[in-house]
Amino acid sequence: VAIDGDGSGFAPAAWAQTLVDHARATGATAIVAPGSDRGNELMAHVAAKLDQPMAANCTQVAAGSPAAVTRVRWGGSLLEEAQLCGSPLLLTSAPHAVPAQPIAGLETVALSDGVSGAVSLRQALASTSGIAEVKQTIASHFHEQDHVLKVRSALDILRRISYRGVGDGARDPGLERLRGEVEKLADDPVMHPIAELEIAHDCNVGRLELPDQMLEEMRRLFAPGSPRARLGAASNDAQVLRAAAIDGMKRWRVFKVTGATPPQARACDVVMRSFQLLLPAAS
Questions:
Q1: Does the pLDDT value for residue 150 go beyond 80?
Q2: Using CB atoms within 10 A of its CB, is residue 25 exposed (0-12), middle (13-18) or buried (19+)?
Q3: What does the pLDDT read at residue 122?
Q4: How far apart are CA 3 and CA 99, in angstroms?
Q5: How far apart are alpha carbons 95 and 105 in whole angstroms?
């Protein structure tokens, strides 16, 4: 849930990129905004960035592939039933179609503590609900990963551009060169965090399944932090770190060659590469 204070400083393109980056990082299955002028404009930018359809002013939605939506058309004179494809689903809610649901107890807690005034009440509710801590945690996590998210978005755009016209029978030497450069860039060790992010995304959306212990190890390895934290090592001693990295590579290689599915095998390659890239730091 994204909440902005008074809506000042509205920048739909920038806000849309933030939503796109967060959705990709968290594996969101849907992005929903209010069907206001700003909400519809924001989601139009999100749809353009993701190159996906968006349904505006919806009154109902049923999950599925594709999803079934009911939305207001022609100024409310008719309801249209349609199918919405894409992941994540992009839609806005028709004004007043869904009643607001208060969070029971928060107002009572705040008022019983003697809080008065709109600003003080809002601060008390934020503190009681824990939303402040959630926002701080999210901000801290994405601040450390923001450069990876930005590069991944740029690389996705370049890759889509490089494949324009493919299948039409016409060759474009310029786009073929761009495609080659994009793939070469994707293979650079500096770009490896993007591969980690994509594997993590596949796990978050259920596209990739791993044993619980290996999933926990992968998430620790992919998380920002020191080599010791990422390796789960007992100390910062170089030999201990190196041994942990080598053991991790062996463990995932055994998993790969003893019955891993093709998606799991690709994940194994990325994880082993992550361990390999930590070896210099352990030297």
A1: no
A2: buried
A3: 61
A4: 18
A5: 26
Sequence letter at residue 27: G
In tens, the pLDDT along 6-19 reads 445 677 788 888 88
* φ, ψ at 189 (rounded to 5°): -55, -30
Question: Which of 122, 121, 53 shows the shortest CA–CA distance to 91?
Answer: 53
Rounded to whole angstroms, how far apart are CA atoms 122 and 113?
13
DSSP-derived letter for residue 113 is: T
- Give the whole-angstrom CA distance, residue 233 versus residue 218: 14
Give tens-digit pLDDT for 88-112: 888 988 877 666 665 555 444 444 5
Q: H or E element: which one contains 33? A: strand 30-34
CB 225 within 8 A of CB 238: no
Name the token pair of 121.
């009440």
The maximal CA–CA distance of the chain, rounded, in angstroms, is 72
What is the DSSP-derived secondary structure letter of residue 58? Answer: E
- DSSP-based three-state secondary structure for 234: coil
Helix 262-278 × helix 212-222 angle, to 10°: 40
Residues 6+ apart with CB under 8 A from 48: 16
Q: 3-state DSSP call for residue 240?
A: helix
| Residue whose tokens read 């353009």 | 48
- Cα 115 to Cα 104, 109, 119, distances in angstroms: 17, 9, 10
pTM, two decimal places: 0.47
Judge contact between 192 and 277, C-beta under 8 A: yes
